[in-house]
Design goal:
The protein is globular. It has one helix at residues 2-20, and strands at 31-34, 40-44, 50-53, 56-57, 67-71, 74-78, 87-93, 100-107, 110-117, 120-122, 124-130, 133-143, 152-162. By secondary structure, it is mainly β. It is built from one helix and 13 strands; from the N terminus they run αβββββββββββββ. Strands 1, 2, 3, 4, 5, 6, 7, 8, 9, 10, 11, 12 and 13 form a 13-stranded antiparallel β-sheet that branches. The protein has one domain. β8 (100-107) and β9 form a beta hairpin. Residues 27-48 are annotated as: Disordered. This is Lipoprotein LpqH. Keywords: Cell membrane, Lipoprotein, Membrane, Palmitate, Signal. Residues 28-48 have a biased composition (Polar residues).
């Protein structure tokens, strides 16, 4: 059962990062674009983005590729892939006190996640808001892809992103 849960979390984290990692060359910082259903999405690619894992900058992540999109009551933060290595994807509620619904990080080739699937929870995340800057902290869990039989690994993270 542990192997199935570990594989499920890894697949969910990888899928989240891949979905969030599309490259929209047509957007400009702070632009508005029509979203599905005719609503307007706020897209932000500017700001002072930081992504730290275990207190260190996430090496290999292009911070210039990190975007923040507000649409449909959600805030989506994602990065473009750099050589298929490091990546980031976050979905949280767009509320006065946002909550993280899912988070995926690719760290050293390992897919780590904060998620709830089928009543099982992996990792944890808290959000602090200061104006239009969001700081997400917590612990993400996943499988060690170099040694999947070793069980789960947990890494502390801190993500700071500005969403206009």
């Amino acid at each position: 059962m542990k192997k199935i849960v570990t594989a499920g979390i890894g697949i969910a984290a990888a899928a989240l990062v891949l979905v969030g990692c599309s490259d929209d060359k047509g957007s400009t910082p702070g632009s508005s674009t029509p979203a599905a259903g005719g609503s307007t999405a706020q897209v932000s690619t500017s700001g002072n983005t930081q992504v730290k894992v275990e207190g260190q900058d996430l090496a290999g992540l292009d911070l210039n590729s990190v975007t923040c999109v507000k649409a449909g009551g959600k805030i989506n933060v994602a990065s473009g892939a750099v050589g298929g290595q490091q990546g980031l994807g976050v979905v949280m509620t767009d509320a006065s006190t946002p909550t993280v619904e899912s988070l995926g990080l690719v760290v050293d080739g390992n897919a780590l996640a904060v998620a709830q699937m089928g009543g099982m929870k992996s990792g944890s995340a808290d959000v602090a808001v200061d104006g239009s800057t969001y700081t997400i902290t917590g612990e993400a869990q996943g499988a060690d892809m170099k040694n999947p039989m070793a069980g789960m690994i947990t890494k502390k993270f801190e993500i700071t992103v500005t969403c206009n």
